[in-house]
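Postdoc handover notes: sequence design on the structure in folder B. Input tokens:
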């Protein structure tokens, strides 16, 4: 009975360790998703602004495009 109890205790400890590792991985993935969403939001706003400028006919050279992004 003592062997079974110690085996189950080790199993529980391993499961708790796995749970903590998974929690950490989930936290890192959520942070990565937030960062990627923020980057995507910035890119899409730059594209919208570029389309707006392009539609108005203000871009005449690549130097003008640099001004749009800065």
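Designed sequence:
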């Amino acid at each position: 009975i003592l062997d079974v109890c110690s085996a189950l205790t080790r199993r529980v400890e391993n499961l708790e360790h796995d749970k903590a590792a998974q929690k950490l991985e989930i936290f890192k993935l959520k942070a990565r998703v937030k960062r990627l969403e923020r980057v995507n939001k910035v890119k899409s706003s730059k594209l919208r602004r570029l389309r707006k400028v392009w539609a108005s006919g203000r871009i005449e050279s690549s130097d003008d495009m640099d001004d749009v992004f800065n």
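Context for whoever picks this up: The two ends are 72 Å apart (CA to CA). Don't rerun without checking with the PI first.
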